[in-house]
Amino acid sequence: MAVRSVEATRAEDTRLLTLDELRAQLRAVGEERYHHKHPFHLMMHEGRLSRGQLQAWALNRYYYQSIIPVKDSIILSRGPDPVFRRAWRKRVVDHDGDATNNNVGGIHRWLKLAEATGLRAEKVRSGEGILPATRFAVNEYLNIVRSRSLLEAVASSLTELFSRDLISLRMEKLRQHYPWLAGGLDYFEARLTQAPEDAKFALNFVHENAKTRAEQELAIQALRDKCDILWAQLDALYFAYVQPGWPPPGAFRMNGEES
Amino acid sequence: MAVRSVEATRAEDTRLLTLDELRAQLRAVGEERYHHKHPFHLMMHEGRLSRGQLQAWALNRYYYQSIIPVKDSIILSRGPDPVFRRAWRKRVVDHDGDATNNNVGGIHRWLKLAEATGLRAEKVRSGEGILPATRFAVNEYLNIVRSRSLLEAVASSLTELFSRDLISLRMEKLRQHYPWLAGGLDYFEARLTQAPEDAKFALNFVHENAKTRAEQELAIQALRDKCDILWAQLDALYFAYVQPGWPPPGAFRMNGEES
Questions:
Q1: How confident is the model at residue A7 (pLDDT cuts 50, 70, 90)?
Q2: Right CATH for B26-241 from 3.90.76.10, 3.30.420.40, 1.20.910.10, 3.20.20.70
Q3: Alpha-carbon gap: A222 to the closest alpha carbon of chain B (Å)
Q4: Which residue stretches of chain B have pLDDT < 50?
């Protein structure tokens, strides 16, 4: 019966989704696998992480932050026209900064956060001690924007649809539980406005450029894969610096697998 | 003091290592971070893994096995001459098989092992349920052989220097603790002779082609990175299907880090 209903769904699946339907499907992916539900974040928001665990988080996520403008430069290099590239270039500026506008950029702001946890910026920048699993997950983001279609590369950025809510909550909880971190939150402050602007552009691009339902499904899958990249980074942190174990959403489960 | 002695070591580090010294340094990397010491393997060899855990292992490692001839084809495509390519081509044949010689190949043999754990070959081949962290780690192997020098790409294969001992032990322990798996061990049987042949060729290649100590160090680092790729796959398995947490060798440790 389950199999038949899947087939029935598939039969309808050739119809192009409207913008609202596409947004709803993308949001459903976020509800299932965005890292706001990861136990490492839940612990952070409940004030249950130690300073050392917050250091491990700031250090490892620095690697992610540091490749974001590389990732966006790859997309920039694949951009079809000046209008697209002008819009996308904003992202590189957001993270790398702009000397003339006195904008230090997101990477610098993340280093400030790492310093607020008690790490030395030079040590963080060196990458020493970052978990291999962090590198592998983050490098996969580069693989995706290099090797898939531009549509999928753009769609993989759409976790920004979900980040504003998570960042708002995080800022409140970090201030509440770790007041000594309060001076390091500029990164998040900036993202509160940057991320929604970027998400809006990317969502419209995906809607306008996915000409078939199959292309829309590829875009949705790219978002799913991006969520896995974020989730795996927290798994690695949790495994190395906190405890227990469970498979991420969608992964092999031991019970009921043997049929 | 510690810093001075590091500098003293570095000052001597321009001297080219002999073949024996190079082999010794590569073996030291294996002693530190090859996955023979990973708790998931220790549990396997002590008979403490459940059938479901062995399934998770066979399923996830299938992804690794399936990209090995892709990885070797990339190296083949970068090979400098027919002599190198003829030697390296053997690896692609070892894994993909050869219809005329009635050699089914390593990928097929791994599927037999997965079937012996109770999984369906078709399901394993589909890749469904493989941990994202497995894909990220394995894809990093492709990144390395694509983006680094040929010397480093070849050196990253040198975990084969260590695999014979691990495979001998594993076959003995699998037969002892999981006799129902005994019919699925052809993959390991074949690797007992293939891996040492391949390691010998690769070691000589690295020795002959690393013209400076700096190049030798890059080759050693490539082996270290490859070990991390293997280790991270078992971390992901352990985290998803077994338990606790500890950082892999060389990674950030929470205590003593804040200095």
A1: very low
A2: 1.20.910.10
A3: 13
A4: 1-9, 11, 246-247, 251, 256-259
Domain boundaries, chain B: 26-241
Eight-class DSSP state of A91: H
Model pLDDT for residues B186-219, shown as the tens digit of each residue: 999 999 999 999 999 999 999 999 999 999 999 9
CA distance linking residue A200 with residue A192, whole number of Å: 13
Task: Report the residue of A115, A147, A239 to disrupt the B interface, i.e. the one with the largest count of B CBs within 10 Å.
Answer: A239
Question: Measured between beta carbons, which residues in chain B are less than 8 angstroms from residue A118?
Answer: 258
pLDDT higher than threshold 80 for residue A129: yes
Tens-digit pLDDT profile for residues A55-99: 999 999 999 999 999 999 999 999 999 999 999 999 999 999 998
Q: Which of A207, A209, A230, A90 is nearest to A149 (CA)?
A: A209
Q: DSSP letter for A180, please.
A: G
Residue B236 in contact with partner chain A when CB distance is under 8 A: yes
Q: Which of A51, A119, A239 sits opposite B245 (nearest CB)?
A: A239
pLDDT confidence of residue A254: 52
Q: Three-state secondary structure along B83-146?
A: HHHHHHHHHHHHHHCEHHHCECCHHHHHHHHHHHCCCCHHHHHHCCCCCHHHHHHHHHHHHHHH
Chain A contact for B50 (CB, 8 A cutoff): yes
Taking an 8 Å cut-off on Cβ atoms, the answer to whether B139 and A137 are in contact is no
The CATH number of domain A21-241, selected from 1.20.910.10, 1.10.260.40, 1.20.1330.10, 2.40.50.100: 1.20.910.10
Token representation of residue B158: 């040198």
pTM of the model: 0.88
